[in-house]
Amino acid sequence: MDVRLIETYQAVMTYGTTSRAAEILGMSQPAVSKAIMSLERSIGFKLFDREKGRMIPSAEGQLFFREVQISLAGLAKLRSAAARIRDYGSGDIRIACLSAFSTNLLPNAIARFRQQNPKVAVSFYVSGSSSIRDMIAANQLDIAITADEIDTNGVEATPFAEIPAALAIPPGHPLAEKEVVHPADLDRLPFVALAPEDTTRHEAEAIFAKYGVAPQVVVETAYSSTVCALVLAGLGCGIVDPITATGYIERGVTLRPLVPSVSFRTLMLFPNQKKSRIVTEMADALIEERSRLAEVR
Asked: In what residue span(s) does the HTH lysR-type domain sit (predicted)?
């Protein structure tokens, strides 16, 4: 069914006469009448009763017009969506990160992005790195920041940030008096460890083994923010991302450098497809915010 015929029919129904519809559409009146007859032939029933030169909507025509209004509203929505995609990519962007960046880097980057793209809607998710990776691979997200221990097959992955870790120390702990903590200082002390699959934990364990020390692991957790909470509760020291730990310093947690140092490494992920303009601009905003935070540290 020809959309142009439908739109001509809508104009006649809306404005009451073929002459007025022709004026609005920029067509001749005979062309409008011809379009109506063509539409009637294609659908198999009369849309108008012709009485003394007047076109009066038939009962079937009135029923058909209801459906036309619904369909053309959907068509208008499609045209609007096409305009958004042309100008902004999808018109919305879906982004995710691990919890370490969910209260600082990502919110600030999104605010930076929105200043340049106020009409683009942003959906923001926080989850574990493996879950985020699977969502990227399934094209359920446009861009994400994860830890580097994930499987990168089936996604586009680029290094994002390498952040020197800090040792979080409970309030009143003797190690808080030291300017720098060495592996020997942690031997047999209660220790809040990152999850076994975490690459930062592997790096720390390699250093502990090299120096012949064995902190006493009392709790394991996947998130730096949870390590900070457990340290604050006095369960032991723990290696954390200093960006995540910022809010805990005010509550009594002390951060000290660990020498030799270990790092948190993160990746920026994309689906394996061409990036829209807005995805590229969000990536730029994330990189700019990463650089700003590095300067602050």
From this structure: 1-58
Which residues have a Cβ under 8 Å from the Cβ of 217 and sit 6 or more positions away?
Answer: 191, 192, 193
Q: What are 89-135's pLDDT values in tens digits? A: 556 899 999 888 888 889 999 999 999 888 888 999 999 899 999 99
Angstrom distance (rounded) from CA 88 to CA 70: 27
pLDDT at residue 88, as a whole number: 56
For domain 166-261, the CATH class is: alpha beta
Is it true that 3-88 and 166-261 share their CATH fold?
no
Q: Look at residue 286 in the predicted model and tell me its pLDDT.
A: 96
C-alpha closest to that of 129 among 194, 67, 33, 186: 194
Q: Give the class (CATH, top level) of 3-88.
A: mainly alpha
CATH fold of 92-162+265-296, please? D-Maltodextrin-Binding Protein; domain 2 (3.40.190)
Between 84 and 116, whose confidence is greater? Answer: 116
What is the per-residue pLDDT for 184? 96
DSSP conformational letter for 185: G
Between 134 and 75, where is the model more confident?
A: 134
Please count the residues of the chain: 297
Q: Which of 20, 22, 10, 24 is nearest to 61 (CA)?
A: 10
CA distances from 148 to 42, 77, 152, 204 (A): 60, 41, 9, 15
